[in-house]
Structures are given as structure tokens and as C-alpha cells.
Specification:
Blueprint: H1 3-12, E1 13-14, E2 17-18, H2 19-28, H3 31-42, H4 54-66, E3 70-76, H5 79-96, E4 99-105, H6 107-120, E5 127-131, H7 135-138, H8 145-151, H9 166-171, E6 174-175, E7 178-179, E8 182-185, E9 189-193, H10 195-200, H11 209-223, H12 239-251, H13 268-279, H14 293-301, E10 307-311, H15 315-318, E11 331-333, E12 356-357, E13 361-365, H16 372-382, H17 385-395, H18 408-413, H19 418-434, E14 435-436, H20 444-460, H21 466-482
Parallel strand pairs: 3-4, 3-5, 12-14
Antiparallel strand pairs: 1-2, 5-13, 6-7, 8-13, 9-10, 9-11
Helix pairs in contact: 2-3, 3-5, 5-17, 12-13, 12-20, 20-21
Length: about 475
Amino acid sequence: MKRRDILRWGASAALGWSATSVLNACRRLSPPSAVQLSLEATRGSQSASIVGTDAYHFLKDVGKRFSGTTLRLVIEDVPGVRVARELMQTEFTPLTGIDVQWDLLPLHRVLGRIEQDIAREAGTYDIMYWDQAWIGRFLEVGVNPKELLENSELRYPNYNFEDFFPSLVAHVSSYQGQLAAIPYDIPIFIMFYRPDILEELGLSVPTTMADYLGTMQKISEAKAPQVYGTVGQWKLEHYSLFCNMTAWLWAHGGSTYYANGEPAINDDRAIAALEYMLAQRQYAPPEAITWDWDGEAEAFRQGRAALFISWGERFPWFEGSPGSQISGRVAVAPCPQEILLRPKSECSFGEVPGISNQGGSSLALSRYSKNKDAAWVFLQWLTSADILTRTAILAKTNSTRRSTYRDPRLQAGFGDNPQVTNYFQVTLDAIENRMGTEPHHPNWINLGFDRFPVELGKLMTDQQSIKTTLNNMAEAAARATETF
């Protein structure tokens, strides 16, 4: 399928859809409802619109070989995934006869399922969703997609692996230069704010770390407890708490490790970072220490705060989603400028400091799969440029492919909604210029998901000091390195 065919297909009818009707539905409804509306209106016509294309012939041909196969995928339950599942049910399965069972779960349960499957070498899941924090542990379980692209006869037409952001290939899907999976999503920290409240109080969008803290203070002083200055994903002993902390760590010039592998998590820069995080508590609802990323986003969605930094993928919850109290009154901007950044050459285990923490994930073809060829066909379709772009349009969420951000369907479709257009521009800037990546340490699951959140939870509840917290974290970081 040539580029001009992709663009013409998307501009006029994406598998039978009118581009205008799809995009209007996106603006009015939440991602799952928008997809359901669009798909229900056009069921039965989707395959006719691609008859004669290379993609159509490829999918029909592989269907002769794999029809009746059932694959199984375990993946985090987020808006873009629900969109992709709908596209699979109405496009991929009718053309190929391949069915896919999606286990949509919270992130921590995805990890549990994967670890159980790998421990037994059972091959229950043909395709697995890997958070970037897990890549060091699961490296040998995934089949290198570059090898398949070079050697498999089942290559999806014009797949173009080089279209994925190189930074995501390197920092989300690889470990020590070895590729293990395909970049699939890219939650990344950006700044959300309420322009109506800032305008009411005569405040500007903060661009420095000092401004950011000062702005939330002024908002709280003027409007709390009805509207607080900020919210936080500060759930005790939860990975979300550590993710929040990393933004302040990196923005103050800190890192988890030094270049020699020794812990840096308890140096003066780390102390300044925790002081900054603790200063925010008085400007957030008290129950913020019970919220993970979902609770934090829901509080902002209900209008309880005016400013916060968190995952960009939450944008669809706020803008145009039924139940959102702030739809039409939310905007995004780049995160404030870091005070100092430690060069990645002074860190280790692939850590890259940057205030825009990325929580990117990949899709891996399991070595234990009993249906590798059929799974490879589906994985390519799911991560193809067209499917990732249409998923981004329908779900108003990010894409791991560069072509999405310059695709006419994206630009034309959201031209009359400047906040959505700006969302994609801010996200692109965060990926290319502001992205922070946690260490790809083989024992990072134990540190990032367990030891660090436990210590930070004690800090947030005033059970121990900043210095004790960071010393305990440094001790755990040193022990984790000694065990491999």
C-alpha cells in the first residue's frame, strides 16, 4: 500500500468511514463510545473500501493459512487499546479469520499474568504488553521483530519499522541495544491546566519550576477547598508515587544511579527533589495520597484542581468525554523547564533524565507462543502506521510512529479544536525533546514497583525523613545491582 493510497484512503473513507463523521464523533464522545458509534454505522462495508490494495491482498492471503486460529493478548486497559480492539473485530478478523482474545487489565495485573506465563513457559499469551520498566527482565522472552521483518515471508506491506521514533525503539523496546519488542504506546508527562481559572486569577501558564509551585499555591489560596492548586498520583506503596517523584528528581539535576553504577538517589539533588514534592502536598486534596494515576486523573476531571503534570494519555478523559466536568476548559503545555539536567552520560542502566517521564510500552511476540506466524501477522497489522494513526484520532491519544503527527487525517480532523491539535504538538515535543526514561535495570521491577514506593509512602505519611527515605532507597538500589 503506497503512501498516497494511505493518505487518500484516510482522507475520504477509512475502511468505509467518512473522515468527518469519525472525527466529529471523537469530539463529542469518549473514546470507546466514539468508536462504537462510528463502527456500528458502517459495519459490513469496511473491507470493500480496501479491495485491490496490497494490505487487502496480504490479509486475505494469510487468512487462507490461518483462518480459525485464536490468539491471546494481555494488555493494559487504556482508551487506545479499546479502539484497537474494535478495529480488529470489524476489519482484521473478517479479512483473515484470525480471532484475538484481549485480556484488558490494570498494569500491575498485566505484570502478574506475564510473570506466571513465563515461569511456566506455557505460551498462554501469544502477544504481551511490556512496560518499559520491565524490558530488562523479559528481554529473552520476546522475539526480535527486526529479525522477523528481515527473514519472515509474512511481512506486512510497507510496514516501515524506521517510522517508529528512534528514541522509543532505544528506550522503550530495547535493552542494552538489543531489540525485543515493538513500541506500542507512549504515556508521557505533560502539563494540564485550566485556562479559565488562570485567567480568572490573572495567572500565566508556568514555565519554570518555581512558577509551577507558586502558581498552584496562588490557586489554592484563592479557591481551595473547592478547587485546589494541584493533584498527585501519590498512592502509598504504588509505582505511581515513584513515577511522580522521578519528574522532580530529574528536574533538579538528579538521577537514580551514577555512571559507575553507584546509587545517586540520595545525593543533594535528590534531597531538593523530595523537598519540592513535599511542598506540593499542602496545595492538593488530602486524599491525594490514596490516588494512583486513575484517581489523580478523575479528581482533575471532576474539577477539583487547576494544574498538574501527568500522563498525556489522560487527555481523552478530560476533553469531550461524558462525565467530564472540565470538557472545553482544559489545556496542555510543555512541562516547566528543568532547573538542571544530569547528562545521560553521567547515569547508568540506560537512564535518561528529563521531566517528561515516559511510561511507554511495547508489544512482544512471545517465544513460547504456539501460533507465532499468525501472531506476527496480527502484531504487524496492529502496529502498522494506518492503525496506529486511526487509533490516535479516535482515542485522542499518542502514537509511537512519527508519521502520525504529520498525517493529514490528524491535522485536518482537529483543525477546529485548537486544544486537541495543541495536545498532539505538545506530546510530540515531549517525546522528541523532554523525555525522561527510568533505568533499564534487570531488577527494576523490584525497585520501581516495590522498594522505592514503600519508602516514599513512609515519607508522604511523615513516618520518616527525606534523608532516611533516600538512604533506604540508595541501599536498596545498591543491593539490586549486587544480585546480577
